[in-house]
Specification:
The chain is α/β, with parallel strands linked by helices and 307 residues long. It has 2 domains: 4-164, 3-Layer(aba) Sandwich (Rossmann fold); 169-289, N-(1-d-carboxylethyl)-l-norvaline Dehydrogenase, domain 2, CATH 1.10.1040. It contains 12 helices and 9 strands. Helix 7 (166-195) packs across helix 10 (235-252), helix 7 packs across helix 12 and helix 8 runs antiparallel to helix 9.
Length: 307
């Protein structure tokens, strides 16, 4: 298989993942709606193209966008990747979108003879830069095996979980847990601090306990020093994923009371106007509800992502 790869979508995650492919020696060709965001990729060795259809001659094109509608637009709208006569062999999508939307996209692509893999990941841009993403894929097993080495260039581990849209279900479940964990972590951190335990001490102890994880470790510096402007994921995007999680739970007949309560907490943050800020600002909201005024502790903390 040719190592010429297309990439559409250079947000925080897309840029970090595409750079990993370049570093692995792949010929990466990039299109992004905001052309200026592609400049760092050009400096890293990528070829910047003028239109999405310039990527149609690639063997594989990765997409990493925000919503199902965004993905449909970059693929099928006028000037879209597969809207012309030439089409790539396959599309590999790492966006967080609905199972139903993904199935519709698969049907349209496969009718055109274009293969389709779902390939969502666990981790934020900092995790991606450290090479510690988990990538979970679904779709035809033969396609997965064909590009497995390519996927491994971007992650510490890759897994195939089955046919069709099963990786979407995995990602929806993953991000639903993401929300529930940050909700509970903020609640217990405020409780501990209000009782008298310094925030950084409490978080460090949690990280070293049986309930600590990569997630709690890499959020600890932000929660300790209140650096919510160092955005990894916004409340609005988390709310979208909580809604996807509750929608899937309804479809499969699964009650999710913890997720439902968390969804309302995240919706409140969105309603209060938190936009270009990290969703961990939830800590500030929890503290305010408890009559606690938070201050940065200005403590250097490890995020657990050092190589």
């Amino acid at each position: 298989m040719s190592n010429r790869i297309g990439w559409i979508g250079l947000g925080r995650m897309g840029e970090a993942m595409a750079k990993k492919l370049i570093k692995a020696g792949h010929d990466v060709n990039v299109w992004n709606r905001t052309a200026s965001k592609a400049a760092p990729l050009a400096e890293a060795g990528a070829t910047i193209v003028a239109s999405k259809q310039d990527l149609a001659s690639c063997q594989a094109v990765f997409t990493m966008v925000s919503t199902t509608d965004d993905l449909k637009e970059v693929l099928f709208a006028e000037g879209g990747l597969v809207a012309g006569a030439s089409k790539p062999r396959m599309v590999i999508d790492s966006s967080s979108i609905s199972q139903e939307g993904s199935a519709e996209i698969r049907e349209r692509l496969e009718a055109m003879g274009v293969g389709y893999l779902c390939a969502p990941v666990s981790g934020n841009a900092k995790v991606a830069k450290a090479g510690k993403l988990l990538l979970v894929a679904s779709g035809p097993k033969a396609l997965y095996e064909e590009v497995e080495a390519m996927l491994q260039a971007m992650a510490r581990r890759v897994m195939w979980v089955g046919e069709g849209e099963l990786a979407r279900v995995w990602k929806i479940a993953h991000n639903t847990m993401f929300g529930v964990v940050i909700q509970n972590l903020c609640e217990i951190t405020v409780m501990a601090e209000k009782a008298g335990i310094p925030r950084h001490v409490f978080l460090e102890s949690i990280n070293d306990s049986v309930v600590g994880s990569m997630y709690t470790r890499y959020k600890t510096p932000m929660l300790t020093n209140l650096t919510f402007d160092q955005v990894t994921f916004t409340p609005k995007l988390l709310l979208k994923d909580m809604d996807l999680g509750l929608g899937a739970a309804k479809a499969y007949g699964v009650p999710m009371p913890a997720a439902a309560a968390t969804r309302e907490s995240i919706a409140r943050m969105v309603g209060r106007g938190y936009e270009d800020i990290d969703f961990a600002v939830l800590l500030k909201e929890m503290a305010a509800d408890s009559g606690l005024e938070l201050k940065s502790e200005n403590v250097k903390m490890s995020d657990g992502l050092e190589s």
